[in-house]
Amino acid sequence: MENQPHKGRGRDAATDSPIVGANGATQSADILGSQLNPPEISPSRTRHLNAAILGGAPAFERTLHVGRPNMPDQQVFLKRMKQILNSGQLTNWGPLVQDFESRVAEISGAKHCIATCNATTGLELAISGLGMSGDVIVPSFTFIATVHALWRQGVRPVFCDIDPVTHCLDVDCVEAAITSRTTGILGVHLWGNSCASPKLRDLAKQHDLKLLFDAAHAFGCQSDQKNPYLGDAEVYSFHATKCIHAFEGGAIVTNDRDLADRLRLLVNFGFAEEDIVEHLGTNGKMNEASAAMGLTSIEAMDRFFAHNRENYNAFAAGLADVPGINLMSRSTAHKHSYQYIVTEVDPTIVGATRDELVAALRLENVYARRYFYPGCHRMQPYAGLSQRAGLTLPVTEAVAERVMILPTGMAVTSQDVDRLCSRIASIVRQAPAVCTAIRQCKDPRLPYFAQKDANTSTNHH
């Protein structure tokens, strides 16, 4: 859901490009060298050091990214690749794709799984297979692919507000949005939180609506509810940025045999037999190499989840005393990937906006991200779809201004987390000076929105 390119904005600190300071002057090689190789300093001390935007050394020599791919056992993966090459079957439901589908169905608790080339194609196929048309209710606070999948199938998205705690659909708002044109609900298990409340399922049944879930964030996650996720179908993502990935990949899971049979035709151009086409399908199949990586990643799932959980606990401890930085709780999850470190920034307490914190962290070699700003209802081609969308989505608009995602995954250690939390504390402690420096800074590593937002922001210091 979140594969967004960085469109050439900043350069990694490890390049030989000159670094431009807040006053516009190019820094010397000696200064640059000291920034690229910061001394080992205890996390407690870094809370009292200058932020990089104020002339201090960056917190990290290497760049920390949100969504850096987790790498499972290479030897196991290469053994599977050798099996593929020896077999000569690279795609068209080879044995590894079949194994992958069986494992995904087992983990999800579904009867049927159809592997796809990616989750966006999976969503489009599920929308088509379910016969969704007219209006479908969907959150605006989601990755744009969720809504694009509807629009590309000729379905009009009706944007609905979210719960301020889980960031998933607000069921009361869903009920209010149902009209005679509504044919379905497309919920999103955002951050791995279940959107499938009993009330939402009851609403869908009461109004005879199709219930589809974008579960791109939710593979392997289990809440305390019994069978909490499955509606008519749900779609997983196995993109490289996901905790469990298949390079690129997706999967549709369902308990409906008829739907599963239909989807197997749709994913293969609509072919029912060798030369008989029964549906308007596409080439949405997963290939064997992706299945090899997917299976190898699934085998490492417990290790990946445990590492992320350790990082989450380190973030919880490290941010506990940082005013205005609130970490989303995972306490209700029975099993969780902890893939996303979701924080909300309160600018009235921090003294800086979320965007200014994200900008300041870029100079620390930390690519924190602002998800999912500004909400799909303010992106094209949906910005003019409803003139009142901004007025009917107050929680979405507020959350989109506050959410900051921090790096985790196998490339981030708990020691990295300690250092990052300490540097965030240092930035917050120096917030007024940091915000002033951002407005003056010409460093090309700053995100495109840094100066624009800083120059137009109100005086919140």
Structural notes for this entry:
This protein is an alpha/beta fold. It has helices at 29-36, 43-46, 74-87, 95-108, 119-129, 144-151, 171-177, 198-206, 257-266, 288-299, 301-319, 347-350, 354-362, 389-392, 394-402, 414-429, 431-440, 449-456; strands at 64-65, 112-116, 135-139, 156-160, 182-188, 210-214, 222-223, 233-237, 250-254, 271-273, 276-277, 325-327, 333-335, 341-345, 366-367, 403-406. Strands 2-9-8-6-5-3-4 form a seven-stranded mixed beta sheet, with helices on both faces. The chain has a three-stranded antiparallel beta sheet with strand order 12-14-16. Helix 3 runs antiparallel to helix 10 (288-299) and helix 5 runs parallel beside helix 6. It is globular. Residues 1-39 and 457-461 have low confidence and may be disordered.
Element layout with pairings:
Blueprint: H1 29-36, H2 43-46, E1 64-65, H3 74-87, H4 95-108, E2 112-116, H5 119-129, E3 135-139, H6 144-151, E4 156-160, H7 171-177, E5 182-188, H8 198-206, E6 210-214, E7 222-223, E8 233-237, E9 250-254, H9 257-266, E10 271-273, E11 276-277, H10 288-299, H11 301-319, E12 325-327, E13 333-335, E14 341-345, H12 347-350, H13 354-362, E15 366-367, H14 389-392, H15 394-402, E16 403-406, H16 414-429, H17 431-440, H18 449-456
Parallel strand pairs: 1-15, 3-4, 3-5, 5-6, 6-8
Antiparallel strand pairs: 2-9, 7-13, 8-9, 10-11, 12-14, 14-16
Helix pairs in contact: 3-10, 4-10, 5-6, 11-16, 13-18, 17-18
Indicate how many domains the architecture comprises: 2
How much is the radius of gyration in Å? 23 Å
β-strand amount: 5-15%
DSSP strand count = 16
* Widest sheet, order of strands: 2-9-8-6-5-3-4
Taking pLDDT < 50 over at least 5 consecutive residues as the criterion, the unreliable ranges are 1-39, 457-461
Task: Give the second-level CATH assignment, the architecture of the largest domain.
Answer: 3-Layer(aba) Sandwich
Could you give a short account of the major beta sheet? 7 strands, mixed
Helical residues, percent: 25-40%
What characteristic shape results from the CA principal axes? globular
Superfamily (CATH H level) name of the largest domain: Type I PLP-dependent aspartate aminotransferase-like (Major domain)
Terminal CA distance? 34 Å
Number of helices: 18
Query: Class by helix and strand content?
Result: alpha/beta
CATH fold descriptor of the largest domain: Aspartate Aminotransferase, domain 2
Roughly what is the average pLDDT, rounded to an integer? 87
CATH class descriptor name of the largest domain: Alpha Beta
